[in-house]
Amino acid sequence: MKKFFYAMLSVATLLGFVACEPNYTGGNHETELAVNSYSINGNEAKLQSVAVDMSGENIYVAASPVANLTTATEILESEEYIFVAVSPLLVGKEFDLKTESTLYTIMSTLAGAPLVEVTPKNNSEVKEGTAQLSYENGVAVAKATITLTNGKVLRLHLSAEKEVNVNENIIARGSEIKPLRAAFYDEGDYSTTLYFTPAGAEYYGELKNVSWYMYIGISNQLIDGVPHSIADMGGTSSFEFGVIDNTSSSKSIEIMAGYLRGATGEFSISKSATGTYTANIDIRVLGVTYTATFDGVCLSVDYAPEKPTNFFTFKGTEYTVSSAVLTQGESVWSVEIATSSGKSVVLNAPKAFFNSGDGGRGFSQSADFTVEYDGTVYSKANGYSGTIISTYDEATHNLTLDFFNNSEVKFNYTGVVEVK
Q: Can you tell me whether residue 336 is helix, strand or coil?
């Protein structure tokens, strides 16, 4: 288990001890634990080493009663440690360990309170409990009160300081709430269109391959930071809003000035510099509410990078690709790609996904679609996003495979494969 999470985590975490912290609004504890301490059935002990960092887009805090550990790697390799990680959607929110569905992970090897791995889908180790991880002004604070199935009560109060980039942008359609990971703009003389997606698209052209995206186009004079009701968008106004679902056209919608289809809601958009926008969208169409909260830099729709081939990128470090082996199962195919990192990356997907040149296929479309590298399994079940575009020629054994829209891994293989 340690090895698995060691592979997941960044190894450049600095030790942090802090004197100030964000306000914590959750939990009704009898007494407040001291900063960087824990208790088991009321017996309090000090945590001597603590660190905060990111695992992909998820923020985590790790701590140990062992002193002088200066990285998260050292903490997670120690005999005793506590680990709390949350999706950016949970940052600052107190949540119930038994009912929360958004991704979180809590582990403990503390003597007397072991937790192998508590997640939304695997919480049988705890009877009840709440947790909260906040991050403000470079300071992370994690607190939790957990009742284990054996009746022991574990409480913790962790705090560490380091500048990390937590994605606070959110996009939602109905009950589907996700981090808003990519944004693009198309600015004209009279109107501007913004595009938002939960996928990790790197340029506008990739939107045709993502699962879904949202767009809003308005007159430039409406980019003033003021809330505007769509009911005020008359037939002469420049307004359009839509959601494009590339996996199911029945989930796509479009409205515009003069054709609101009974939609209600409002939007506010402001611009502080070229490509830098703040947007708040809350629009209900045909019984579904679509929202987006964004504050940051959008890429121009005109930007398109040169497309590299035969590469593998892991957490920003790029390696070359030398060869690939294709194993053709009855329904699921697997490609093992050799990289200059000395480790192979393995992609598993339904057979049909290997001729997806007509559009991308995402993790959300099949539980059999996974990517494995260095002990980590990237899949929808494990909270990751990912997209494949691939074509395979049975006669020549030529394969073109692109994997992208993932926070840690991206790769391409173009060439002949050995077939098993």
A: strand
Ramachandran class of 129: left when φ > 0, alpha when ψ lies in -120 to 50, beta otherwise: left
pLDDT averaged over every residue in the chain: 90
* DSSP-derived 3-state class of residue 4: helix
**Count of beta carbons in the 10 Å neighbourhood of residue 249:** 8
Provide the b/e sequence for 140-169 (b: ≥16 CB within 10 Å): bbbbbbbebeeeebbbbbbbbbbeeebbbb
Of 337, 387, 398, 389, the C-alpha closest to 362 is: 387
Taking the C-alpha atoms of residue 241 and residue 396, their distance in angstroms, rounded to an integer, is: 45
Global pTM reads 0.72
Amino acid letter, 24: Y
Alpha-carbon gap, residue 320 to 343, rounded angstroms: 11
- The conformation of residue 111, written as its DSSP 8-state character, comes to T
Residue 80 token pair: 């005793």
Mean pLDDT of 253-273: 96
Tokens, residue 264: 């209600």
| Residue 222 contacts residue 269 (beta carbons within 8 Å) | yes
Residue 239's H or E segment, with its range, is: strand 239-245
Beta-bridge partner residues of 82: 63, 108
The angle subtended at Cα 212 by Cα 360 and Cα 201, nearest 5°, is 65
Which tens digits make up the pLDDT trace of 137-195?
999 999 999 999 999 999 999 999 999 999 999 999 999 999 999 999 999 999 999 99
Question: Which of 412, 393, 396 is closest to 404 using CA atoms?
Answer: 412
Distance between CA atoms of residues 83 and 109, nearest Å: 9
C-alpha to C-alpha distance for 401 and 406, rounded to whole angstroms: 15
Amino acid, res. 53? D
Helix (H) or strand (E) holding 175: none
The residues, ordered by sequence, that sit 6+ positions from 85 with a Cβ below 8 Å of its Cβ are 55, 58, 59, 60, 61, 104, 105, 106, 133
Beta carbons of 283 and 263 less than 8 angstroms apart: yes
**Separation of alpha carbons 28 and 83, rounded Å:** 22
Sequence length of the chain is: 420
Q: Show the CA angle centred on residue 276, arms to residues 270 and 281, nearest 5°.
A: 45
Q: Note the pLDDT tens digit of each residue in 192-248.
A: 999 999 998 989 999 998 999 999 999 999 999 999 999 998 766 789 999 999 989
Q: Using only C-alpha atoms, what is the Rg of the chain?
A: 24
How far is Cα 173 from Cα 162, in angstroms, rounded to an integer? 33
d(CA 155, CA 269): 43
